[in-house]
């Protein structure tokens, strides 16, 4: 890992003195090992110690919100959980539920999120389990995709429940049972709506007597993979995140064509304000992951992923690793490069579950306790 700073000066932008992402003075390597620790304008000097990092982290979260829209204050609305159905498995009960994520201040309409909630049935008196927020990939099935009704390599919600975790699997807006008119949303992006919904899912988990609120993780594949990173970035109650096929650097996403990121489901400002240009984007994914440090992150990034080319992950790893090293958490950031396409095969799911077991302090019997 290089010791010398590779990006020594970045040009200013209108918000908080941050530079446009692609503008690095002197042609420095914006993804180099020291890129996240270098200064970003006169008001944002180099990060030289762990004490300097919170200031930089705040600036990175601000940059993300330039694209996603502002993160609202936590909702004070009651969760108002409704159990719509219940099924009993061998080791768990699966409830089909709805909960309130927020109330739109303009219309007074409650944003109701459909979800599955898995509760273990073998709890001892007073026992509290770790919990996982399991986020589905792009699929018309939504939450059902990861609950056994979809592709065989996508059933991580079900498998984590079988492993003994409390698991919540919400629908992402416009998938599964969650109809969504994005034009009527109070948020600037579907991504921010997802963050709000997932933050409330964490509220719901913490409200349960069966859950240890200090041991909550997030996992997802593809769409769920980047949403696991987004919620972990904005909600420090997520102590560990697993992202499968969920990201790479924007210049390496379909050779820099960000059209897929710019729909109403995701971040339309990428088109309307940043011209779908990686060089104009105020943030990139190495910065998203850095905001999660020193909490645990496992990235599973297949070498043949046509959506998120692994080269765009490899470029980012040194700069993220430098932040984890600065914070004394070198072993908390891990990357796997399986030889497969855009998939979450059994060996990698097992790797993910063992990673969560360690990060959330689960006994090695794999039973969530």
UniProtKB/TrEMBL annotation:
Leader sequence segment: 1-22
Gene Ontology biological-process entries: proteolysis
Domain named Peptidase S9 prolyl oligopeptidase catalytic: residues: 160-257
Pfam families: Peptidase_S9 (PF00326)
Gene Ontology terms for molecular function: carboxylic ester hydrolase activity; serine-type peptidase activity
Key words of the record: Hydrolase, Signal
Domain of life: Bacteria
PANTHER family, A to Z: DIENELACTONE HYDROLASE DOMAIN-CONTAINING PROTEIN-RELATED (PTHR22946), POLYKETIDE TRANSFERASE AF380 (PTHR22946:SF9)
Protein name in UniProt: Alpha/beta fold hydrolase
